Every structure is written in C-alpha cells, then in structure tokens.
Amino acid sequence: MVEYEAVIGLEVHAELETRSKMFCPCPVVDSTVAKPNTSVCPVCSGMPGVLPVVNRKAVEYALRVALALECEIAGTSIFARKNYFYPDLPKGYQISQYEQPLARNGRLLILTSQGERLVRIRRVHMEEDTGKLTHIAKDGPEGSRIPTHSLVDLNRAGVPLLEIVTEPDLHTAEEVRAYAVSLRSVLRYLGVNSGDMQKGVLRIEPNVSVRLLGSDKLGTRVEIKNLNSFRSLERSVDYEINRQIESLEKGIAVQQQTLGWDIEHEVTVPQRIKEGEDDYRYFPEPDLPPLVLESEWIEQIKSALPELPAARLHRFQMQYGLNVYNAGVLIAEQAVADYFEQAAASAEGASAKVVANWIIGELFSLLNQSGISIENSPVTPSMLADVVKMAVSNEVNNNTAKSVLAEMFSTGRLAADIVNERGLRQISDSRWIADLVAQVLATHPDEVRSFQTGKENVARWLFGQVMRSAKGKANPQVIQAELDRQLKEVKPNG
C-alpha cells in the first residue's frame, strides 16, 4: 500500500497593537465596531504625492516577536512594494519586506501528543494590512444569493502587520494547531497582539502539499487563506491532506492554487491560481529609506522580554512538580499562569499540584459556564487558596469545598464566612463518628448480614448512610476507617 506524507508550512499574519498605523498617524481602531472609513488619511488611502513614515513602536513590537522566536536580526532591512490588485488595497500595492526582511532563522518549541517539536522560523517581516470588504447580495431563484456590489472599509488599511513564516516542518493537522496555539500564546505574552482571532487580528494561512512517504521531493502546494480559528485551521488542513491524497491516487495532479475554507460544508474551495513571488513584482519602496537598527536598542528590547511560555512550562514542571499537561494548560494564557502562581504562594500547607487541579477543574468549569475570563474572576487567587487549604486540612470535605467555591464565585464572599454561617466545618471526632456508625449498622441488620456473606459492595451503601446521617459534615476518611473496623466486629442481630 502506498503511503503519503503531508508537508506543511504556515504563514501567520498578526496585527500589532500600536496606537497608530504603520506609516501614518491615523489611530488603529477596532474595525468590527468602528464606523467605516473614519480612521483614514491621504497616506493610508493611497493619495498621490504623500509620503509614508515608519512607526517606531511597530518596529519595537516586531523586534520583540523576532527576538522571542530566537531569530537573527538584520541590522538593515528594506521595505518593498508588493504589487497586486485588490479592491481593499487603496494604493494598488502593499508596502512589505521581501529580500531583506527584519529577521530570519528563528525557532519555536511546540507541544504535541508525540512530545515536544522544534519548528524552524524562516522569516519575520513587517508590512501593512489591507482594508475590509463587505459583499452585498440579493435573493435569487431557489434560495440562491446573487452578488450585487461590495463595500470597502479602509479603517484597517495601513494597520501594522507582522508576517511570521515557518519552514515546511509540520506534517499533521495536530502539529499545525499546536504551532498556532503556541505562537498565539507568545504574541499575547509579549503584549503585541490580543490573539482575538474572531476579529481577524491573527490570521493563519497554511501551505499544504503531500508526497510519497520517504521521498525528499516536495509535492505541489496549495495555500488556504485567512483562517481565523484553530478549529477551521485544523479541519481545513486535515481535509486538504486527504483531498490531495485522493487526487494523487486517482492519477490527478494537484494544481497550485489559493483556496478558501467553506465553514458550513467543511471543504476547501478554489479562489484563484496561486501567484508566484515573481508575479508580485517586488521592488524597493522608493519613499522609505533602509531601516537601520542600532544594536544597543535591540539589546534593550531583548533584555526587557518577559518570561516566555516555553520557559514557564519547564519552570512549572521543575519548581512545582506539575506534569507536562497541567503545566501546559496553565501557561497557555499568561493571566492563568499568574493566577496559579499567586494562589500557590497563598495556599500554605497545600501542594502546588492540588492548587493546579482546583484551577483546571473547578475554577475553569465555573469560568466557562459564566463566560468570564480569569482576569475578571470574582474568586481571587488568595480566595481560592483559602478554600483549597480548608479542603486539604479536612476543615471541610472535598464536596463541601466545591459547593463553597461555587457560592464564592456567585457572591464574591469569603470561604470562612460561608462555612461559618452555614455550619459546614467537617467533624473528625472519632467517638461521635463511632456512635454514628454503630447506629447505622444497628438500623440495617439485613445489609450487615449481606456484607458478611460476601457482598462487599454493601459497604459502600452503608458508608453513604453514615454520611447522610452526618449530613455531610463528618470526615469521610474517619468514617471509612471506623466502618471497616465495626463491620469486622459486629454480629448480625437474630
């Protein structure tokens, strides 16, 4: 049987969260809510005779990313004109970088089900974003829609955009998703991009090809454009791999082209024949001088980088003894990782592993149900630590602690106040529990006989009866030990 291997590289476009655009002073606005064409000037609308000026803050943000990805930084880089026509590209060309980009030869460590993988970064370069088109259609026959015209909004035109291009190092849809998740996390840690993919500030374009397993010859690649969710990314790549394999098995050559992703039908759809680099007719931007960076400034930016996700992942494993899965969940969002460290520091007597389990399990469940981010959680790290300490010290049992946390989340009250007001403290008095167990056994002689004849599962039912009699306040460990002791000694009545 012939086996195939997918070869995938990714292009990621990330808007940089500067206050103004890449080459003009127009403010960057949220194009999903701002009134169309209100943040536009002669520069970003492509009027003749105007001159672009590079946004220093955008360069700084781009350097943060390139340095975090361990790239080689170019002391001198060149802006170029990338010539192609789109209705939402007002100048008729895009200012980008090509032959001499800002940075090259980086890498990003990703975590997959097969372990850690190192993905090579080919280049990181700056450019400007395009505008936004809204297509208008009218109802046609049999429920169809007939396009009538398109509206253009230039608020996004000229917004600083960073393009991050990998080498073709990825081979599965899972790896592609893992890379995108890891890169998004890095961008958010650096504070240069919100990662809000639904708003289009982070867009991913996989280049997918397949070849015979073991071959070193690359197949014909296609590019899937402007994916703005991890789900669409993973599903479109998986679909395209299978589509290309089916074509090759039928003897049909794969055509190099640009594809879109039809979310409703979950298929790729052709958009246009893929351009090559020569078709863009790159040449140096005549209105911008070479971008020359001082080494001292680069070092200042590098020294100010925060602890990045990969480093935090390994530290959480070493410092707190977390497994790689829990550490990965916690470091994926900087706010979650910060919350965990604050809670762990406050939870004296409780291990960091226990704190991590409470966050990943109970707190995440409450946050997801309410649609609240951890930054806005009504339960602060110290409040969570309080309820964890109560559970670990057996001041309350685990089930009670969970109900207390839920009430804290809905009311913002402290754990101690809830426990005191409702009388929820766990009782560990061995004499009181022994009397309770004896009463239950005396009340249920038939079940005791069943246990003594070998039906050991009856013990679980008797345990539940004791807990019910104690109204959930008794220490389960003490109950279990006392129940085991008395069941060995008690004689059935009659």
Explained architecture:
The chain folds into three domains: 298 residues, no CATH class; 113 residues, no CATH class; 60 residues, Arc Repressor Mutant, subunit A (Orthogonal Bundle). Helices cover 39% and strands 21% of the residues. The chain is built from 15 helices and 16 strands. Strand 6 and strand 7 form a beta hairpin. The relative contact order is 0.09.
Counting DSSP E segments of at least 2 residues, the number of strands comes to: 16
Helix content: 25-40%
Mean pLDDT: 92
Radius of gyration: 30 Å
Distance between the termini: 73 Å
Give the count of helical stretches: 15
- In this structure, how is the largest beta sheet organized? 9 strands, mixed
Low-pLDDT parts are: none
SS-based class: alpha+beta
- The dominant shape is elongated
Strand content: 15-25%
Largest sheet, spatial ordering of strands: 2-6-7-10-1-11-12-13-14
List the helices and strands and how they pair.
Blueprint: E1 4-15, H1 56-68, E2 72-73, E3 76-77, E4 79-83, E5 93-97, E6 103-112, E7 115-128, E8 132-139, E9 145-153, E10 160-166, H2 173-190, E11 202-212, E12 222-224, H3 230-249, E13 257-262, E14 267-273, E15 283-284, E16 291-292, H4 295-303, H5 309-320, H6 324-331, H7 334-346, H8 352-370, H9 381-392, H10 398-411, H11 415-422, H12 430-443, H13 445-452, H14 458-469, H15 476-489
Parallel strand pairs: 12-13
Antiparallel strand pairs: 1-10, 1-11, 2-6, 3-16, 4-5, 4-15, 6-7, 7-10, 8-9, 11-12, 13-14
